[in-house]
Amino acid sequence: MQPITLYTKTDIGKERITNEDSVASLIMNSQSFRNEFNYGILVVADGMGGLQKGELASELATKKFIETVTENIFQVTSQNGKIKFQDVLTKAVESANKEVWALAESQEGKIGTTLVGAIIVNNHVYVVNVGDSRAYLIHQDKSIQQITKDHSAVQAMLDNHIITKEQAKNHPRRNILTKALGLSESVSPDFYEQDMKNETLMLCSDGLYGMIEDHEITQTINGSIYKSADDLISLANRNGGIDNISVAIARYSA
After folding, report:
1. Is 144 within 8 Å of 137 (Cβ atoms)?
2. Which domain CATH number covers 188?
3. What is this structure's pTM?
4. Which one, 63, 95, 131, 240, has least CB within 10 Å?
5. What tens digit of pLDDT does each residue of 192-206 get?
């Protein structure tokens, strides 16, 4: 039985005329003399730039992220032979940024995208993010943990105790990012490492978490990850669906 299950889904929402989000996932297997390893790779990106530009930026980023992870996951190792997942993920984000930056340079106006990506192996998840797309871990007791921290003007105000979490939800500057792919020639992502055993990992764009409360997420993620993803998107649309909605869900069963 495959210990890792993945599912990704994106939806245009109810108010947008194009979908500027992109999602991707992949399961890789490797086998040594004694052990077999399974790697789950997943990514969500939320493009900016309007019309097809944001759509292209997020698609370029997700494709390049997956491609770079698969190329380097067995190449970037420490002296004891262990994979350096932070280096693998950072290189994938840097490669994706170069692709989006090259696109932005060839176009008029700013083009960019958020990105949140993860690698699951054994009972660990390694996460990287730029922008305000998020990673959450939903525990067996139905508690929810936000793994990532947004790169946004609102998050900066929260950090400096200028506004409350309640005020942040509808703040007029909530869509202003302090970091994204494609806005400069280089980018420094944040990296997180987390234990994961019989728990559910969810990556999503702000079109999902901006329309659904935490308790609604934990109530909806139950049983099948495929149905959970479908139900989360349906709920976000029922609550307004003012933006594109994307989700990537993974589960590791020991």
Report:
1. yes
2. 3.60.40.10
3. 0.94
4. 240
5. 999 998 899 999 999
